[in-house]
Structure formats: structure tokens, C-alpha cells
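Ticket #4471: structure export looks truncated?
Reporter: QA, pipeline team
Priority: medium

Steps to reproduce: submit the single chain below to the structure queue and open the exported record.
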Amino acid sequence: MAETDEIRGRAQGTAPVPLSVLDLVTVGAGRTATDALRTSVAISRLAESRGFHRYWVAEHHSMPGVASSSPAVILAHLAAHTDRIRLGSGGVMLPNHAPLVIAEQFGTLEAMAPGRVDLGLGRAPGTDGATAAALRRTDRLNEGADDFPEQLAELIRFLDDDFPDGHPYARIHAVPGPVQATSPGGVQSPHRPPVWLLGSSGFSARLAGVLGLPFAFAHHFSAQNTIPALDLYRESFRPSAVLDAPYALIGVSALATDDEKEARRQVLAAALNMVRLRTGRPGLVPTPEEAEAYDFSPMEREFVDRWNANVIHGTADEVRSGLDDLQKRTGADELMITGNAHGGDVRLRSYELIADAYGLPAPA
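Actual output as written to the record:
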């Protein structure tokens, strides 16, 4: 089972709670996926050097502006470029995959980066219905979501290698995994990736509470549900071998720049990207110049205003104040910051400014 200190972080500097990073590996117009992945390496190394607690990547599919379709592959790459920061999925969409495959992938990651891998799981497809059908080889998409608790139980059994005698999978083992310790001469790491449940509504909040697992809520795109979901998680929580008390982080969209006007330009470009995604026109993240020249319809402008109202942006001091206020309102145990912008340099600078604003440790 996961040790509590593999889940709970420690606040650094003047931050009210541990700060972490959620990376969508966004690709801007005029840039390549290679550029985006190089930015991810740079941000992960910055995050490690400045005392951010963990670095997660999210599973998305069929979106030109998001190059994170394969979290396990990206995490292996980041593991090779970092030494201490926790790495994980925020998350892997469990209905898209066989539980055994996920157990094998994250067992391999655990072998690469012992004691610092998280396995965050979601039940949404991370894409549109047609793409989900292609991923799952079925058009019965509700079936996967409805079976999520059973899939989760199966995955945990594979991670712990403890199917009961007589179970059809009792002689099947996820490797790397605990079975190696029981083989002649075998020595196996005492760690296995702690499981987190992710959600944007109440379903996973309640399930995480009932199972005594840590919970991550997608505040960055479902802000109206944040407090109800966190309340439900805490009310449902039952102590487990994993946690003796609830532990909840929230994903927060935040972007700090040296100039307030520049922050507004950058978040407008990110919002235009969301407008196109939500209207069936996904593409690369546009430049601020393209966004400023774009003729938004009244409906699109309303969407942008609502979307950006949930993005904490501005100078470093303004972002720090917004993050502090959000943490107080929600009681979140950890803030996981996602900074979306056209250019990787802007994203990198944002995390640097936030670290400075909270007096996080200086890089070695």
C-alpha cells in the first residue's frame, strides 16, 4: 500500500499548501510537438529545483494543440530528466485501457523512478465520442464509465498482485510488480504507485471517499462543482490503509507574467483555443496576435468571459493572491497549477514567477 508521505506534500516558502504542476503539453501555432515536449522537460526541471511537489500530465486524444495522448511515455521521458519530483498522470482515462496494461505501464515507471510515481485515474474518455469509440473498439461508451468501480478494483488487484485463489486472473501478474519479490531470488521495490481518483463531478469524489483514496478535482474546467465535490469527498471519506484522513488537490488554471496586459493577451489566446475545441474546430493554440484580431461572436465572447473568469492571471502578486483566496475558499490540501499559453517560454516564466512570489527554494 502507498505510504502517506507519498501522497501528502509539504508546503514550501510562504505557500499555504504544496504547489504542483499539471502539464497538458500544449502545442502552439508555429510550434511542433517536439517543441512542446522540450518545454515539458524544462518546466519539470524548474518545478523540481523550486520545490513544487509533483508534476502530472493528462491524457487527451485527437486534439492538435495537446500532445499528451500517451502519459506513460511522457512520464518515462520526464523521469530521465529529473531526480526527485513526483511524476504522475492527471490522469490516465481508465475506460480507455485494459487495467492490466495500466498496471504494467506504471509498474515500469515505478521501476524507472522508484518511490516517486503517482497513478491518477479518470473515467471520462479525454476526447470526443468517435475517438473514444476508436480507442475502446466499441461504440457502447457508457459501458466503460458505468464499469469504472469494477475496472478500478481489477487494476488495484493487478498492482498489488493479490487476486484470490480461483479468480480467472489469479495466475496473471503485472510485471514489473510484486510477483517478482515472490520468485526464487526475487527482490522487489517496496513501493507501488499510489492511486488517485480524478473527477469533475460527484461520482469520483464519493468513490474516492468511500475507498479512502486521495482525490484530485478539475477546478480548472469545472469550477462550479468544486466545493460540492470536495464536501462530498470529505463527507464520504472512510479511513483506509492508504489514508487516515481526506487529502484533496485541485487543478487550477493560473498564468503569471511580468506585465498584467500581457497576461490578458495570453489567456485570450488560450480561451480562443477552447472556443474552437468546444465548437468542433480543435487546432493548435493560437498566438496572442491572432486572438486579438479574431472577431468573436456574442456567444463566443460570453464563453470567453466565463472561461477566463476562472483563470487566475496577472502579475505574480496578483496570481499569488488569487491562489491564496482559492485555497481558503475550498480548503484544498494542494494546488496543482496548469498554465496554458501559446509559447513555452511564457509557461516556463509563469512557474518561475509563481515560485518567486511564494519564496520557494532557489535553484541549486
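Status: closed, not a bug. The export was complete when the record was re-opened. Leaving a note from the reviewer for reference: The two ends are 33 Å apart (CA to CA).
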